Amino acid sequence: MVARAAREFDGAEAMDRPCQDDETGPDAARRTRGSAMTDAVSQAGALVLGSAPAQSMAMLYQSAAQATSLSMQNAVAQQQQMNTISNTVTAQCLALLLSGGPAARVAPPPQPDSSAVLADALKTLIAALATNQTPPS
């Protein structure tokens, strides 16, 4: 609208005085076009001032969204690093177990001396199960 009003504007000499309702002719048309241009410029200014609060809120929301997404990206990166460390620790522990490291030095549990000891332990367990009690250790 501003561009059209600027193309149609012929000069500033007719804008010195306001247009009267009963006035006709080229001067009246020039003043009418000049007032249209003034209206267009003032409407553009009002549009800019009216949209400023919405634009500032939009910028605030975009900043908050960017900060949130950056923190989520950092959390994902940390989880990936922890997963890598976990896999490395698991592989090293398995290699230590398979190589006969400290776990190989642990003595095996004592074996019963005879079948009589095993039979007594089995009888005690069966008796405890029959009475729903905890077997003695």
UniProtKB/TrEMBL annotation:
Protein name: R body protein
Superkingdom of source: Bacteria
Classification via InterPro entries: Killing_trait_RebB
Species per Swiss-Prot/TrEMBL record: Skermanella stibiiresistens SB22
Comp. bias regions, Basic and acidic residues: 1-20
Database matches in Pfam families: RebB
Disordered, as annotated region: 1-37
